[in-house]
Amino acid sequence: KDWDKVFEPFYRTVEARHSTRPGSGLGLAFVKVIVEAVGGTISVDRSSLGGARFLMTFPALQNEPSSSQEDSDMMPSMKVVILGGSAAGPKVASKVFRLMPNADITILDRGQVLSYAGCGLPYYISGVVRNQSQLISSPLGESRDPIFAHNRKNIHVLHQTEALEIDGSNRRIRIRSRYQDRDTWLNYDKLVLATGAQPIIPDLPGIHLANIFSLHGVSDAEGIRAALERGKAHDVIILGGGLIGIEITEALVRKGCRVTIIESRQQILRILDWEMARLVENHLESQGVKVLTNTRVKEFQGEEKVRSVLTDKGVLPADMVVMAVGVQPNISLAQKAGLKIGTTGAIHVNEYLQTSDPNIYAAGDCIESVDFLTGKPSYVPLGSNANRQGRIAAVNICGGTDAFPGVLRSMACKVLDYSIARSGLTETEAQREGFDVISALVPGPDKEPFVPGAKLIFVKVIVDRPTRRLLGAQAIGPGNADKRIDLAAVAIHNRMTIDQLANMDLCYAPQYSLVMDNIITAANIARNKLDGQMVGISPMELYEKMRNGDDLLLLDVRTPLEFEQSHLPNSTHIPLGTLREKIYELPHHKEIVTLCSYSLRGYEAQLILRAAGFPNVRVLDGGLEMWPYGES
Length: 632
Description:
Elements: H1 14-17, H2 27-37, E1 41-46, E2 52-57, H3 69-73, E3 79-83, H4 88-99, E4 104-108, H5 121-126, H6 146-153, E5 155-158, E6 161-167, E7 172-177, E8 184-187, E9 190-193, E10 197-199, E11 212-214, H7 218-229, E12 235-239, H8 243-254, E13 258-262, H9 274-286, E14 290-292, E15 297-302, E16 306-311, E17 314-317, E18 320-323, E19 327-329, H10 332-336, E20 360-362, E21 369-370, E22 377-378, H11 383-397, E23 411-415, E24 418-424, H12 427-432, E25 437-445, E26 456-464, E27 470-477, H13 482-493, H14 498-502, H15 518-530, E28 536-537, H16 539-548, E29 552-556, H17 560-565, E30 571-573, H18 579-582, E31 591-595, H19 600-611, E32 617-620
Helix pairs in contact: 4-11
């Protein structure tokens, strides 16, 4: 009722007059006078997120052309237009400016926020990042807004402006601003498509109920945060167990929500192999998160707001739902322009990030990449790739010949004090691509165990048997996982063998790593397997044998105390120190699987038994620390 008075001098509401906040009612009156003095307008209406939204418009400054020789020397050498202002787009603009400072660079974006850290949105929701401005700040704390872009880099930013059509033959695009009632044409010499991706929203009954969110942009994060701060979201359903779903889980749990993850496939986190994903799932459930795999949502129920979710396994209460089933590339503009679309459904580009029109480049979540190991098309929407691609596209726009080498899908995330990282191919993916692989599972502390703060990590490496090349690596656990996977990514990128990785000269100090780092140990175990010195059995294979009732002997060689605390059903317990004197008690003809916590004692037990003539002895890969099926 007071909106028509907020610009009046000295006006204060009744609530403001009775509050302890100082003020005279002149602030907004001053704003109105200044805006109108420069030919602009200001208005206020209701924000969709609650509160008020102020809209100001200003006339653009028209630069007068100069005929002087000095000014002509400074005329823009190239007009670069970039569609998209999230990750790849601003990176293109910044690098073009550095290579060609007098270029005329324009960024168009449909949103209101430029170059925000999308990966930081879960931390903003949880409150770790307190202010939205932190997500758009440079490393030095400067806000990367249009004023910063123009003053520092001579980059023009057109917010809330949509590109409607690309006229490639005339090198121009038709655009529309929400502040204008007509379309205009913008010319370019080089055009960059950095249109990103959009969340996949399943067509389900009730999908439009209130309190059903995606996590794609600052406005989504604001909506989720507002719902949490109102205390109206106790039961939260996350639809999708991929990276987005896992990353938002921690923020919701930290806010005191009861969280359920629903995944239609047999495992969460398809970026990992099953046994690694299962260990993450076990950790989530130990922290109170309910994980439902092989479960499909059929309907969202409620009147105005969502109240429950109907699945093929029953009904779950829900005060809020977060859609995290994945993203798809924004390609509609490219399709209309007749640009080639790849087999993954994203924009096809060559190694220099040119589209089928050589004057149009593309980068970020809208493009199709090439898998570095298989050479096949791959769609990998990651901020790290978007920034690398943005830089390469800019170099080539300015006359360079940088080539994008492809993707290893290196990625990391964190959930409830559990690190998750991977690079290269999973074992499942490698087998599907026709590789003959072996793998090694290695648990261990991330630094010397006598150092305070040492924490477990679980490492898996995948190796091509004929060439001994490292194909992939995964690491999870409360310890430092990303360091090991970054090292593996370097090895994969340089096509190193597992032998070369095992002999790398790495830094060592007790507070940083084991004397032989986890990734080095994993490489050595893989070498032992390749050379026939160790024969392993995966947790899945052993579990199937146990479930089928196969005639085998589980030999647990840990200490009596460890065995009493937990052990697999029907295990035979002989501590490693007494194995030689009790070896005659073991059946010579049976398949024997040796067990311990980390596989080291199991490996030594296998060597003892094989030296004594036992023909069929295998070690449980990863030991009981990486047994994904729970305790006995």
